[in-house]
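Note to self: user wants both folds in one dump. Writing first protein now.
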Amino acid sequence: MSELKGRVALVTGAARGLGAAAAKALADKGAKVVLSDVRDGREAANAVGGAFVKHDVTSEEEWISAVTFAKETFGGLDILVNNAGVFWVKPMAVETLESFRKMQQINVEGVFLGLKHAIPAIAERAHQWDGGGAVVNLSSVAGIVGGPNIIAYNASKGAVRLMTKSAALESASLKVRVNSVHPGIIDTPMMAEAATVLEKVTGQGHNAIRDNFADRHPLKRMGRDIDVANAVAFLASDAAAFVTGSELVVDGGMTAI
């Protein structure tokens, strides 16, 4: 398929998990992809014929460098996927202000810096495409409904949801669409790490925790990375040409309850 042929995408947090899956989905549709991460993402980049740049999303200087790298490597920038983020489980009573702020710095400020520095570059070429340029921000069902022991995460993903709408309104005249994706519980390395923490907190076994994760979705399974990656690719494409400021929920029915 070649719906995105000629376009250049930058995907953050792309060394593994949802970021790597999103990069592959975009590449499969013909886009040239720059994968960025604080981890080494060269293997993931090679797997999709893309390029890798080391990138701390909390650094404004590194955002400028990542956007410049995309333009110099592939000739421009048309799509941004703000995927980089962190997640942990911590009851409010033991959550520290330092830890809370760290979550916001990565999950919220990182998205803000991406919007600020990528959208002007995307706007330079947006007129070439029927659907214009596109930004997809990874939020979460935790950006829509609350949950226990994730107050910092709820705060960060709720912020991403409304930042998306604000940026969409500002960018409409530039022909740049901005949307958010809200996954349920997705079977990724990050979720496996959370399950390990919950084993210690709850005393439940690993399989019991995974079964609980699955049962929280009416479809009775955890999501797969491809479920989210397909949603990202749709929003990045001209098939979503009249979609901006929206929230696409990919949660197996979790928030319908």
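First done. Writing the second protein, which came from a different request thread.
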Amino acid sequence: MWNLKQELEKAQSLSKRIELHTASGVQVWHVWNQAAGKPLVLLHGGSGSWNHWVCNVLPLSQQRAVWALDTPGLGDSELPLKALDADDLAEPLEEGLQHLFGSEALDVVGFSFGGLMAGFAAAQWPTRFKRLVLVGVPGLGLSNNILNMRGFRDDMSAEERLGVHKNNLLAIMLHNESLVTEDLLTMQAQNVSRDRLRRRRIARSDALLHQQTKWTCEVHGIWGALDALYKGKMHLLPERLAGCNLQSFQTIANAGHWVQYEQPEAFNQALQNALPV
């Protein structure tokens, strides 16, 4: 039986942790199968860390060197000075990629907030991106559905706080309630506690509609068919990405926003279809 805690420990034990010192602060990267070459860069979602990809890094690393960043201001990476939102992180992302890969054009997969950040970077440094895969990204002028999100109070007990995390995971991230285990709630609580980026003003905007016209790379989309951000609007997404070189758009059944966790095998296959070695 699949066990999140064990999978996290296994993934961590097989990874190399790299602390990268850049002009904007220390970035923490995790790499699997570095010797394989053929780098595949994974950028996680908001209030997350590399572990948004816990179900994916080992299968994907069978063919690629998988590089997962803790986004600056999230996870173990430092918050760049004055950074508030995704647009402020494009330059720190490019700094990290320059340190690690020089001028090499890369395959980059951006989930949600990570895809938003990648979109700004691809507009400013288009030759950096060989192929860009967007996974459930906001910023397309459609993710304005009302979500039943709850906040925290200082006087909440530990049990009450876990209840908020469960509510929010089901409100935005996951469709299948059975996936919200004690281990997942613990992981979520740890990720949220390290989130130092609180504005998220761009997510509900149409910023990527304007950025995409500057992209020169091949673009692919992978979405969970039950993504709460796009309920009733999924059919509009390919049209919203008409301003870029969209090569494929795949939806995965029985999956919400966090599609790579909810349906990992289907997601991994979809990604391999989009990014053949």
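Dump finished. Worth passing along: DSSP finds ten helices and eight strands in the chain.
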